[in-house]
Amino acid sequence: MPILMAVCTVIGILIGTFYTSHFSGNKLNIINSGSNRLNNLLHIIDDQYVDSVNIDDLVEKAMPLILAELDPHSVYISADEVQMATDDLKGSFSGVGVEFVIRNDTLRIQNVIKNGPADRAGILAGDKLVAVDGKPFVGKEVTNAEAMHRLKGKKGTKVKIGILRGKQQGVKTFEVTRDDIVTHSVSATYMLDDETGYIRIKNFGENTFGEVLSSLAELSQSGFKNLMIDLRDNNGGLMASAIQIADEFLPKNRLIVYTEGRKQPRQSYMSTGRGSYQDVPLVVLLNANSASAAEIFAGAIQDNDRGTIIGRRSFGKGLVQNQLDFTDGSLLRLTIARYYTPSGRCIQKPYTDGKDKEYEDDILQRYAHGEFFSEDSIKHEGPKYHTSIGRTVYGGGGITPDYFVPEDTTGMTSYYKEAAMSGLIQQYAFEYTDEHREELKNYETMPELLAHLTKQDLVEKFVAYADKNGLQRRNLMVAKSRRLLESYLNSRIIYNMLDEQAWMEYLNRDDPDVRKGLKVFTDNASWPKLSETDKKSKK
Predict the structure, then answer these.
(1) Which of 451, 454, 481 is closest to 466 using CA atoms?
(2) 388: annotated active-site residue
(3) Which residues contact 142 (CB under 8 A, 6 or more apart)?
(4) Contact in structure between 315 and 290 (CB atoms under 8 Å)
(5) Does 187 qualify as catalytic in the annotation?
(6) Closest CA to 436 of 478, 489, 488
(7) Which residue has the higher pLDDT, 28 or 122?
(8) Which of 185, 292, 343, 481 is catalytic?
(9) Catalytic residue among 128, 152, 317, 516, which?
(10) What is the mean pLDDT of the chain?
């Protein structure tokens, strides 16, 4: 009996000590130690907090904040946002097949994909979408995110769309069966002149390599001898696609890119030598919005001295993310490594953490200190590296082009800036298109439509429209900016009536980067050579 009482006393002391440390004023000792602090914190909140708490919602809000302490490109994407975040990379989604703009809290159909679900149902460009599945869809709730949420859905499901058309009275309802909609990475493929082919790549997705091969085959039919690849405003995508495309232009056993991280040993990606376009003179166009996979491709071409880079310094994203899918449909993109170009440079620009304000504002800061307009303003903060033949290149912040082309500010005025940034030009262009759609349908090619538009005095009509909508007429500024205003108006109407390729054909007609690329081909200068400075440093 004494032994039994002693054992019970010891057990009582142990239990008392446990409860004292876990459920008294010492709770913070647990929270502040060990690897399960977050789990302990959430458990205590769920168990003892004064009000009921949705723990799942709390975690959903906390995860982005935790990742924001790491780097600018580690992100958490909720289940609701996953489809929108992955559609471009997959190259397809299931929906109704329309392009739209939002004007005055109303969704207006800008283009209808040929032979797509909406086209088969009878919906036309210019229609106003005012209801979805019998419920009004107008006013402040009309946003891009909400429109995509309502119009996208599983293949084979039906959606009823209420349409207002032109001057017709009443809402007309169309039943549309959702289907797979292909999204293209290559937005333009055509001949700039008799010898020069042009390919514009918007992003690098799962289908980009196949699309580029199709574009190259199409250009081959036209007998191209030179090739210009436009990666301006291409914010990247899948590294594998950039590697596949670079492989088409490089001889065997050339390093394309390598990755390395704290837990990721170096992995090198080499060219196979099976590419069909290893000897084609090549120019690549970049600007400050060219990032990630676009920089991988450009870095491989530049460091292997395979082609010439033209434009302005690229964005500077040299971090590799791994995608982890959660069972609830959400996903995590976590930075696991850095990628390095063949010369060994990491072109990731500096950052403090994921909330770095300077990192977010870097492009604006570049603009402010003149980098868009003067090559001398480019800050080379990283170390020097050398290409395969010994040319000097720099790490620490993007790909610096071989030929710098300043942004064209000829004709720029405060009137033009306000007209463009306020959205008035796009709004007028859409309304003009809508009002004259039947007439404009008669012009099926860009040159035909442009010839018609140049006779319409669009600048004067826009200035009168803008004056009625809060942008006061400034005759001297309008005269100075006339070329810019006319170009912007023409380009938007061409885009509204034709397609993205026609739009690019128009914009490229007098584009400084394109002009410089064509001159490089004319001068037989697309294959890089050592500068006198590099020759001296090599000696």
Answers:
(1) 481
(2) no
(3) 102, 105, 106, 107
(4) yes
(5) no
(6) 489
(7) 122
(8) 292
(9) 317
(10) 88
pLDDT in tens, 33-86: 445 788 888 888 888 988 988 988 888 888 888 888 899 999 998 887 777 677
Q: What's the CA dihedral at 315, 316, 318, 324 to 10 degrees?
A: -40
Encode pLDDT of 290-339 as tens digits: 999 999 999 999 999 999 999 999 999 999 999 888 888 889 999 999 99
Instruction: Establish whether 292 is a catalytic residue.
Output: yes
β-pairing, 319-325 with 331-340? antiparallel
Q: What are phi and psi of 461, to 5 degrees?
A: -65, -40
pLDDT: which is higher, 419 or 32: 419
CA distance 312 to 530: 20
> One-letter amino acid identity for 110?
Q
Single pTM value for the model: 0.86
- Spacing of C-alpha 101 from chain mean position: 18
Instruction: Exactly one of 303, 362, 511, 513 is catalytic; name it.
Output: 303
3-state secondary structure 94-159: EECCEEEEEECCEEEEEEECCCCHHHHHCCCCCCEEEEECCEECCHHHCCHHHHHHHHCCCCCCEE
Closest CA to 412 of 480, 356, 465: 480
Angle at 486 between CA 290 and CA 311, to 5 degrees: 25
Per-residue confidence (pLDDT) for residue 105, from 0 to 100: 82
Question: Which residues, other chains included, contact 312 with Cβ-Cβ below 8 Å and sequence gap of 6+?
Answer: 286, 287, 288, 371, 372, 401, 404, 405, 406, 407
| CB atoms closer than 10 angstroms to residue 535 | 12
- The residue with tokens 């990666």 is 231
Q: Of 366 and 503, which is predicted with more confidence? A: 503
* Separation of alpha carbons 121 and 174, rounded Å: 6
Type of residue numbered 181? I
Distance of CA 493 to the CA centre of its chain: 23
Residue found under tokens 């006393």: 9
CA quadruple 56, 59, 61, 62: dihedral, nearest 10: 170
Secondary structure (3-state) at 454: coil
Instruction: Enumerate residues 6+ apart whose C-beta is below 8 A from 334.
Output: 67, 74, 321, 322, 324
DSSP string, 174-224: EEEE-EEEE--SEEEEEESSSSEEEEEE--B-TTHHHHHHHHHHHHHHTT-
